[in-house]
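Q: Can someone sanity-check these two? First one:
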Amino acid sequence: MRKLMLFLGLAGLLSACTVTTQGGARVNLRFGVDLTPTIIRLEPDRGPGSTYFVGEFVKFYLSLDRPGYVALVAIDPNGQTYEFSRYYLQAGSHLLSGPQGNPNFGFQLRPPRGLERVRAIYTDSPYPPGFTFSGVYTYETWDRQTSIYLRQTGARIRDVAETYFYIR
């Protein structure tokens, strides 16, 4: 019994591991694909873990070390998954404020209240045709959809960063 508990504890610790290989590539066990560190920063404009109220607008800071395609996707407290937007961005720092790219615009928040997780999914090739993040997922199926997305792009360089905030 003790060995089983030790094994289960170790398995839990390793379940979200990222293994770094020679040359800087990361094999992310969560998504089952090689990730190349490309996303330097992803956070809401008030910082990770910040609080927003229903009806307020959120923007995201994103920094990349190379140009590429970014899908900004989220999962709400009820498991509803959706895309904020998709972008082609140059290397550098960006304020993602909506599809128009207008700095006076933001993504308006609506219920449900609670923890909102957001991912930036980077690839060096265009988005898979017809693929969208929508529907109700568990965190595991959201990970699986992210993995499918990464594979369907055919990208050689890909990365995933995640942040979170709360809606009150």
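And here is the second, same format, sequence then tokens:
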Amino acid sequence: MHEFSGGWFWRMHRGELPPPPVSLLLKQRIVRIDLERGELDADFEADASFANPAGHVQGGMLAAMLDALTASVVDATLQAGERVASLSLNVSFLKAAQVGPIQGRAHLVRKGRTVAHAGAELVQGDIAVASATAVCMVVPQAGR
């Protein structure tokens, strides 16, 4: 076990805490975590309720997936009693995403004491559909 094992993210990952509702909505499933490389992979499932009038996945849903990825890669590095809050999320939509499975990869660019920078990409098959950079704030849990 590593030094971060008592944090909220790891307790959730071990099944000791339920995932947040947004993870259930996005059908987010974390499939790989490499803290030494600062990487995290997750799968999402975009169902028909995510579709815009053109039948593609609404950009806001892709942005939510990217926000979940960048926050998760930062969350994985936090100690017990710390949480992450997104300060900014810069999203680029690269190609229309289809309803169905979407894979994501996040990477930690830099983490300081109170601010972290992360990036993420969403792909369907071998095609990148969206990417983002994020600035996140590390905040103490309420009551601490």
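A (reply): Looked at the second one. Strands lie at 29-34, 39-46, 82-93, 100-111, 115-124, 127-140. The first helix runs from residue 8 to 13.
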